[in-house]
Design a protein that fits this description.
Two copies of one chain form a homodimer. The first copy, chain A, is built from nine helices and no strands. The first copy, chain A, is mostly helical and 186 residues long. The first copy, chain A, has two domains: 43 residues, Arc Repressor Mutant, subunit A, CATH 1.10.10.60; 130 residues, Orthogonal Bundle (Tetracycline Repressor, domain 2), CATH 1.10.357.10. At the A-B interface, helix 1, helix 6, helix 8 and helix 9 of A face helix 6, helix 8 and helix 9 of B. Chain A binds a DNA duplex (30 and 30 nucleotides) through helix 3. Chains A, B: Keywords: DNA-binding, Transcription, Transcription regulation. Chains A, B: InterPro entries: DNA-bd_HTH_TetR-type_CS (IPR023772), Homeodomain-like_sf (IPR009057), HTH-type_TetR-like_transc_reg (IPR050109), HTH_TetR (IPR001647). Chains A, B: GO terms for molecular function: DNA-binding transcription factor activity; transcription cis-regulatory region binding. Chains A, B: This is TetR/AcrR family transcriptional regulator.
DNA sequence: CACTTGCAAGTAAATGCTCACATACCGCCA
DNA sequence: TGGCGGTATGTGAGCATTTACTTGCAAGTG
């Protein structure tokens, strides 16, 4: 079996557990049952490996949000779509998702803001809904942050082991109601 | 002027910017305009320094939540108190607060759960309110996470520079309404 | 053969931390 | 008051270890 996917999995787990700076190439190699040199056959540096994994998660989540939210109309449906996007990403690869969640701030300097990150996407949805009077007025940046916070903090607490082993989607109905309530609250 | 407080400030800034593992003792010393050795006159290790700072922030926030929420009655007032506690902590020392916010997961293994962390405190408030039928039933762990997420994600986006330079408390009314909406939503 | 993938041993640089030494501070008693 | 000793504080060169990464070689593949 090829080493590359094994290294990716191992790196993901180690990065999620120890952070990018706390992770060592030795640990990653050991976990993948591969020599350290093997890593450098496929990536130029530890950081390139980390960035690649992070961007994959980032893109996956952004794509899901765009697809789910773009397919429906009305605030309630958009809220449900947002929750569904996060839950799908979390359920289909929890390690990748939690790595993205917990290490976000490490990579902020890297990703160019092409407006395709989750926060900006949600901001735009909210702005549009406010224009159409489907939502009461208010700073869209703050409203977006609060709505996303409902989901991400729940996911974080799950990552911290405070919510048991249920999939994130087990809490989707509750989160959907809460996101919608946040959007409408003022 | 004594070096200890200067080191604490410098460490806080460097930890917040680079993370605990990414921060070097050399950088901290340089920023504090102090020799590296001076750090070790006051702390046994870099980690001890980091843990000390983190715990100070952790305790401050927990104390504020306990005090503010303990002084009022009713769900609406408790929600306002929670927001006020976070805003006070953030406004009185933003560097300390954002360090605590962004590096939380690094210190999770350390703090013994004596039930005095912010999440547990909020969970207990919610449980009690549900018992008294002031809130609709639901998993208190998830409801607490969602309510806190409204505040922490807003703070995180501010830390990421997405909300301008206003104090966190500038958004307190909006956050209070949102937290209350989350608590009641189902 | 050409090319990719993997290994084991190694390298230079960096990191956290120490230690011998210097200086500032402070109570104490003549 | 002023000199004295003990302690707390700060220095910076230096140490052992760890780190990311490299390199020469071998085996698999087509």
């Amino acid at each position: 079996m090829s080493a590359k996917p094994r290294i990716e999995r191992a790196a993901l787990e180690v990065f999620a557990a120890h952070g990018v700076d706390g992770a060592t190439t030795k640990l990653i190699a050991a976990r993948a049952e591969v020599s350290e040199g093997a890593i450098y056959r496929h990536w130029k540096s530890k950081d390139e490996l980390a960035i690649g994994l992070f961007m994959a998660a980032h893109k996956r989540l952004s794509d899901l949000i765009e697809a789910e939210a773009g397919a429906v109309h009305g605030v309630a449906a958009k809220a449900a779509a947002l929750v569904k996007a996060y839950c799908t990403a979390a359920d289909e690869d929890w390690t990748l998702f939690s790595f993205h969640l917990l290490q976000l701030h490490h990579f902020l300097p890297y990703y160019q803001d092409d407006g395709r990150d989750p926060v900006t996407l949600v901001e735009m949805i909210i702005k549009y809904a406010m224009m159409k009077m489907e939502l009461p007025p208010g700073d869209p940046r703050v409203v977006a942050a609060m709505a996303i916070g409902v989901i991400t903090q729940t996911a974080q607490n799950k990552a911290y082991g405070r919510l048991g082993d249920d999939a994130l989607s087990a809490h989707a109905p509750l989160m959907t109601a809460a996101v919608l309530a946040v959007l409408k609250a003022r």
